[in-house]
Amino acid sequence: MNADAKIPMHSTGKAARDRVVPVHCAVAGRARFRVAGLHRSPIAKRILESRLAGLPAIRLISVSALTGTVLVRFDPDCSIEQISALIERALDGFGRLEIPVIPPAHVDSARAGWRWHTTKPPPHESWHAMDRSGVAQRLGTSIQTGLSGSTAAQRLQEYGANRLPESAPRPQLAILLDQLSSTPILLLMAAAGASILTGGIADAAMILGVVALNGAIGYATESQAQKTIDSLRRLVTSSATVLRDGLLREIPEYEVVVGDIMILRPGYRVAADGRLIEAERLSIDESTLTGESAPAYKTVAPLAADELPLADRRNMVYMGTLVTGGQGSAVVVATGRWTQIGRIQTLAAAAQAPRTPLQRQLDDMGRQLGAGVSAVSAALFGIGLLRGYSFINMLQTSIALAVAAVPEGLPTIATTILALGIARMRKQHVLIRRLGAVETLGCVGAVCLDKTGTLTLNRMSVVELYAGGRRFEVRADALWGEGQPLGAQAPRELAGLLRACVLCSETRIERRDGTYVLTGSPTENALVNLALALGEDALAIRRSHPILKVSLRSEDRSFMRTLHRIADGAGARRFLTAVKGSPEQVLAMCTRQLKAGRVVELTAADRAAIEAENQRMAGRALRVLGCAWREDAAEPLDGEQELVWLGLAALTDPVRSGVAEVIRGFHRAGIDTVMITGDQGPTAWAIGNELNLSRNSRLEIVDSTELAGREPDVLKGLAGKVDVFARVSPAHKLQIVRAMQRGGKIVAMTGDGINDSPALKAADIGVAMGHSGTDIAREVADVILEDDALETMLAAVRQGRTIYSNIRKAVHFLLSTNLSEVIVTFAAIAAGMGQPLTPMQLLWINLISETSLGLGLALEPPEAGIMEQPPRDPHEPVVRPADLRRMGFESLTLSAGTLGAYGYGLARHGAGARARTLGFTALVGGQILHAIPSRSERFTLFERPPGQSNPVLALMVAGSLVLQVAVFVMPWLRKLLAITAIDLADTVAIGAGSILPLLINEGAKRAVLARPTRDGGRT
Question: Measuring CA to CA, which of 172, 306, 386, 517 is 20 to 30 A from 853?
Answer without folding.
Answer: 172
